[in-house]
Please model this.
Amino acid sequence: MLRLPMKLLRRVLLSLGAGTLAGLSAALFLHVLNLATTTRESRPELVYFLPLAGALIGFVYHRYGNGAERGTSLVLDEIHDPKTRLPVRMAPFVFIGTILTHLFGGSAGREGTAVQVAASLADGFGGIFRTDPDERKRLLIAGAGAGFGSAIGAPFAGFVFGMEVVWVDRLKPYALLESAVASVTAFGVMRLFPGLHTNYPRPEMPDLSLRLALTVVGAGVAFGLLARAFMASVHAVERVQARFVRVPALRPVVGGVLLVALYLWEGTYRFTGLGIPIIQDALVEPAGWPVVALKVLFTAITLGSGFKGGEFIPLVFVGTALGSHLSGYGAGGAGFLGALGFAAVFGAASNTPFACAIMATEIFGLGLAPYALAACAIAYVCSGDRRIYAGQRRAGG
Model:
């Protein structure tokens, strides 16, 4: 009779450990990343060393990566078909690679790194207790979701994200207990370190009308097409690099040289790093469309060349800017449509529309919920069959 309670207790304790590791790693990562961003902003000349940072990242991953360069896709592959533990080096490699990318001006994100680090640590933690394949899958899902939610300050979205990102076309309620415990634990740990999460202006909610409904539908379509264009751009850079730069370790070097040249051409250096100030401004005043195109360009070269950091914040950036810009053509203000784009473009690219609708509600308020759900669903449908994470599979596939 004690077998079931003991098994349940084991699941809870493993999830508590995974969540604690996710929260601590996210707190450390965000703190160091903030220091790197502050340093780069105070010393713009660091951008000129981006090719050297690329050389270091490329060499280390090519020589010692052991598959870790596949990032989130490797995590998803192990969830679908557990074979070997994630490389222990995955967490420090992606952590340091992301810091170097941001310190020297790459246009990348941060939440993808938090997901990979948390999943890697959860997998290693489970290995200590000799988890079986089913337990391991549950911990990987819970760790990935806890890393996502703790990094953005949205625990309910993190709870859903780990389960939803595994499959392309369905939310499979698997590892519910582990995901819930890990996500809440990670968020609780993060609260011990205040000031690490970004604060975004909350939009003024417009009155419901037919014009507003049509605007949300139209914006959802635009968000889906933007997600598709973003993914196509990253994959295009990957293909071009693979064709013309045969040595993988040199691809970040080539990408770094091109980025420095483009930064000098653009002149403002606004598109280095995360670009949080531009996102915040776009939630207050309408953004110009060139901001969207330039961020896609700089991020595609950064990520497609092998720099680290992930896609979340760049997709949030372009989605918010596009929504803000579209406010001049329909109902709803820049903040309202920007908040929808904040969630919908990443939701479409990552095939996690439900988790991203929840995220928008947690960040911008409950009143946005129905609009966010509609925009995320429409964007997801309109984004097509492209996937930002190669390790995702269709349900039943």
